[in-house]
Amino acid sequence: MGGLGKTTLARKVYNHRDLQSYARAWVCITQQYHPKAVFVNILKQLCTSNQKIDDLKVEDLVTRIHSFSKERKCLVVIDDIWNNDDWEIIKQAFPVNCNVILTTRSQNIANQESEPHKLKFLIEDEEQTLLDWKKVNMNMETYLRHGEGVEEYRRVKQGLELSYDVLPYYLKPCFLYLACFPEDHKIDTERLYLLWMAEDFISYQDKGPNESRYLTELAMRCMVQLHKSQVYSTLHKNFDSCGLHDLMHDLCSSKAEEEKFVKRIDASKYLCGIPPPRLALLPSICNSISRLAINYDLEKSISSIDGLEELNHLRCLCFSEKVMSLKGECYQVRLPNVIWEMKRLKHLFLSRRIKLIGEEKLRLDGLEELETLESISSETTCIEDIPKLGCVKSWDEGVVEVMEIGKYPMLQRLELRKVEMRGTLIFHSNSFPQLKKLYLSDLKDMKKWEVKEKALSKLTFLSIDSCCNLEKLISTLQEIKIRGMSSEFMEGVEEGDYAPLVKILR
């Protein structure tokens, strides 16, 4: 039965302090069950690998999860699984002795495995109260969306709407913005702050310690649920993602559409069966769009997207294949080289599957307000002449001219993955004057690094992952996180002067 507290109890076990050293994963199984999406989610949480997990076949994902679970102590929670067939597919990924917690309403699923823990029912008076609320829940969606319903449920609607009505004026747009995200979606807080800033909901003067204040206020009002980071960091907030309860998401979505704040279009309803798949943005609507997110889940590649050059007021452009295809691999999206014409663009989140029409590189010159650039390749993207660039996340498998990036005076975060770094990485004098966070991952050929005078002068946080030939660290840091390094390297770290600052992720 729903509502007995199965998920709450599982969450308490999952967050228990004695289990923090385990590799952990939590996945919620919806009634629209997608095996590959579930396995990708589990593998990413368990091993935090930087490999192209999204491209793996289901069989390969199962093999990797199975192998990893044999090598490490793991705890995996499969929340709200509905039928036996789904569980039969999922459980093949786990060895016999792996710690797996299931929450389910199905007695058949529960009885298949070890002795289930059955939650007790309420006493008669409490049971009747629960049944009354169950009736409320059955009518909630209709009532929220249409504002109609029987009199006995009016108080429930008023209670939910009151939570929104009493919000201060500065929190209302922040809350409505969450309607842009799918139901049950874990929203990365760092990205959310950037998006709020792009919309001027948060002033740029509030960057830093005060940037999370609005999200904290929403959480204190029980409008938003905060999700704890798996690794505590003294320099950063202990919450790395957030989300909305299902009922609150319904309220958020209905209010956002009611106030003409957000318009969500389900492409699967409108674009299916159109050969070839093609997305066109009409000039009549382009002038009113300030944020465009395209989550593609099509069985064929999108041949092109037309009309991008008309988005004169666009501040955020996001392409993502995180909505996973269930019938084969995710395909490429081809774009015209017109993003450079979006003069007001501040945040650009690309996908590794984006391909340009033609042979030239993606032009970004003229984007003087661009601050965030994610998932780029130096072989396909020009990043010169972006003076305000504050964050670069590179998924490049070619060569990155790091010293050219180091000239950007406002760059605060740099993420380099699988780039070609041969021998010694040298940070020249006065390079990266504002850089605070540096992430190095899968730099197989980098052995040493050298920091010249006044370079990386404000760097406080370093993350190193699978840089297998790196011999030593720099010691001018407040916090270091290390993962996937050799035992010899770790021994040197633990014996060094900076050992108390190191967060070791094995």
Proportion of strand residues? 15-25%
In spatial order, strands of the major sheet run: 8-10-12-14-15-16-18-20-21-22
Largest sheet, in brief, is:
10 strands, parallel
Number of domains: 3
Average pLDDT across residues?
Answer: 71
Radius of gyration: 24 Å
Unreliable parts: 230-237, 268-288, 296-304, 320-331
Number of helices: 15
Instruction: Please identify the structural class as seen in this structure.
Output: alpha/beta
Helix content: 25-40%
Number of strands: 22
**Fold-level CATH name of the largest domain:** Leucine-rich repeat, LRR (right-handed beta-alpha superhelix)
Query: What is the CA–CA distance across the termini?
Result: 39 Å
Label the CATH architecture of the largest domain: Alpha-Beta Horseshoe
CATH class of the largest domain: Alpha Beta
User: What overall form do the CA principal axes indicate?
Assistant: globular
